[in-house]
Automatic annotation (TrEMBL):
It catalyses: (R)-methylmalonyl-CoA = (S)-methylmalonyl-CoA. The lineage of its organism: Eukaryota, Metazoa, Chordata, Craniata, Vertebrata. This is Methylmalonyl-CoA epimerase, mitochondrial. Residues 36-165 form the VOC domain. Keywords: Cobalt, Isomerase, Metal-binding. It comes from Certhia brachydactyla. Methylmalonyl-CoA epimerase involved in propionyl-CoA metabolism. Gene3D superfamilies: 2,3-Dihydroxybiphenyl 1,2-Dioxygenase, domain 1. Belongs to the methylmalonyl-CoA epimerase family. The gene is Mcee.
Length: 165
């Protein structure tokens, strides 16, 4: 009874938040909603080696290579269950990935992609909030859906892609 009574009396007490405000009250009302993480994009200098790493070494399901000339990239998607990785490789001399790889020879994280339920409403509100968008209109992305990119200097150093869900 001595050990049991000591365990019962030394049990931690559970405390609740003392604030009467709920967390949701701190979130501003928007005409659009941020959704789930769609993918993390990684620029790679050798697409075949990167595909092999994820497919043959790590055992992931890897898509075929798709050329997206309007974005200047080749893309490959790696399925992860809860999200995807997008492997990016330059397509053409004006590719933004080519300039990224000139600065980052071994590759690296290029951007994150988050889904939104209304990309046009998101664009309008973000412009009002002085967040720079890197195109005047959405472009069709790798999933065949409208996408925009937000300036990394306005997003704490991260290039953020928003994709219509």
């Amino acid at each position: 009874s001595g050990l049991l009574s000591r365990l019962q009396t030394s049990a931690p007490t559970v405390r609740t938040l003392s604030s009467s405000k709920s967390f949701s009250q701190n979130i501003p009302n928007c005409l659009w909603k941020l959704g789930r993480l769609n993918h993390v994009a990684i620029a790679v200098p050798d697409l075949e080696k990167a595909q092999s790493l994820y497919k043959d070494v790590l055992g992931a399901q890897v898509s075929e290579t798709v050329a997206l000339p309007e974005h200047g990239v080749y893309t490959v998607f790696v399925e992860l269950g809860n999200t995807k990785l997008e492997l990016l490789h330059p397509l053409g001399e004006k590719s933004p990935i080519a300039s990224f790889l000139q600065k980052n020879k071994t590759g690296g994280m290029h951007h994150i992609c988050i889904e939104v339920d209304d990309i046009k409403a998101a664009m309008a509100e973000l412009k009002k909030k002085k967040i720079r968008i890197l195109s005047e209109e959405p472009k069709i992305g790798a999933h065949g859906k409208p996408v925009i990119f937000l300036h990394p200097k306005d997003c704490h150093g991260v290039l953020v892609e928003l994709e219509q869900a």
